[in-house]
């Protein structure tokens, strides 16, 4: 009888453990791994969202910038962390789609991660150092073609969003670029302002303030409509590269096996942040667009990620990017 009672008690406690853990989640600080350097667009977005999520969750949101290999080192760190909701993976089209076409990853971007929530998106923006003697996209293309060697294009590493945007730019223009990898487009932008590199096909949210300050030159945004907070920058359709569209979306993931209740709690805190008017103002001012309300479930992010893998992997693989 004693053994039976012990077995039943053990079973009840074991089965109830995930639910009990989820009830008390979070009971300590949550780390969000941002796979790019501080000061870049990924870091900036997560810090804005994290400030609000901290209030909802009642625990500090600690941002850890784990950089390298186009963001795949940081994502790998998150993937291999305990599935308890205390390590979250921030990523985007580059890290959670393109990286899988560029690197032999130690994880599967879909099978080893649970989607939590789709985050804001933005088109890319073609920007150059002010020393480039071009006042339009057509003049920039002519200048690039006239260079004796390929222009230096800053990226956040092979497989990053800015790198994929560069590959796409090369494909539509036939112009070769020489990529200069950084640990994020924050540092890349600093070198562009300093004139150390020639251009970046950057996230709008990263470059927009330096464009406004006249510290770099903008030629077009990769969308069919202008960015509300940068109305003076034409679209690629208007500027002579019709159809050169690319939207970089971001998202949050946790390791596979994280309890559903924990995923739901994180999702709820992120959605509350996205629906906060102050958070929205700060993000929209950077040229970011909020995800539609019907795209805020974990499944919606999963569907976006799978669709974008189908869309982008063929082009990226055809570019035969070397990771040596
Ligand atoms: C990218 O190019 O993948 C990102 O903009 C990098 C970053 O967020 O620093």
Q: Please provide the ordered H/E string of secondary-structure elements.
A: HEHEHEHEHEHEHEHEHEHHH
Bound molecules: D-malate
Estimate percent helicity.
Answer: 40-55%
> What count of structural domains?
2
Looking at CATH, which topology of the largest domain would you report? D-Maltodextrin-Binding Protein, domain 2
Rough outline: elongated
Largest sheet: 7 strands, mixed
Give a structural overview:
The protein is of the alpha/beta class. Helix content is 45%, strand content 19%. The chain contains twelve helices and nine strands. α6 (161-173) links the parallel β5 and β6 (177-181). α2 packs across α10 and α4 runs parallel beside α12 (298-318). The radius of gyration is 21 Å and the shape is elongated. The mean pLDDT is 94. The structure holds D-malate.
List the helices and strands and how they pair.
Layout: H1 2-24, E1 30-34, H2 41-57, E2 61-65, H3 72-79, E3 87-92, H4 94-102, E4 113-129, H5 137-146, E5 151-155, H6 161-173, E6 177-181, H7 185-193, E7 199-203, H8 204-212, E8 216-221, H9 236-239, E9 247-255, H10 260-274, H11 277-285, H12 298-318
Parallel strand pairs: 1-2, 1-3, 5-6
Antiparallel strand pairs: 3-9, 4-7, 4-8, 4-9
């Amino acid at each position: 009888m004693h053994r039976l009672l012990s077995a039943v008690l053990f079973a009840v406690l074991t089965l109830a453990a995930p639910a009990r853990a989820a009830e008390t989640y979070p009971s300590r600080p949550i780390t969000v791994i941002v796979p790019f350097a501080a000061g870049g667009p990924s870091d900036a977005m997560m810090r804005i969202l994290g400030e609000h999520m901290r209030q909802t969750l009642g625990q500090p949101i600690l941002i850890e910038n784990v950089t390298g290999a186009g963001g795949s080192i940081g994502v790998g760190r998150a993937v291999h962390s305990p599935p308890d909701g205390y390590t979250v993976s921030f990523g985007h089209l580059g890290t959670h789609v393109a990286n899988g076409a560029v690197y032999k990853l130690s994880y599967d971007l879909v099978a080893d991660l649970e989607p939590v929530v789709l985050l804001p998106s933005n088109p890319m923006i073609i920007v150059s150092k002010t020393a480039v003697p071009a006042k339009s996209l057509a003049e920039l293309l002519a200048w690039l073609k006239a260079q004796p060697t390929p222009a230096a294009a800053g990226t956040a590493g092979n497989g990053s969003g800015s790198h994929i945007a560069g590959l796409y730019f090369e494909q539509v223009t036939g112009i070769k670029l020489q990529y200069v990898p950084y640990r994020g487009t924050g540092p890349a932008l600093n070198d562009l302002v300093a004139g150390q590199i020639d251009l970046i096909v950057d996230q709008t949210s990263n470059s927009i303030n330096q464009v406004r300050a006249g510290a770099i030159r903008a030629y077009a945004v990769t969308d069919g409509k202008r960015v509300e907070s940068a109305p003076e920058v034409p679209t690629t359709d208007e500027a002579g590269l019709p159809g050169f569209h690319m939207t970089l979306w971001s998202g949050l993931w946790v390791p596979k096996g994280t309890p559903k209740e924990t995923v739901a709690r994180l999702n709820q805190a992120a959605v509350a942040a996205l629906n906060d008017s102050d958070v929205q103002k700060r993000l929209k001012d950077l040229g970011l667009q909020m995800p539609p309300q019907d795209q805020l479930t974990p499944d919606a992010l999963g569907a976006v990620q799978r669709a974008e893998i189908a869309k982008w992997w063929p082009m990226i693989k055809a570019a035969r990017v070397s990771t040596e």
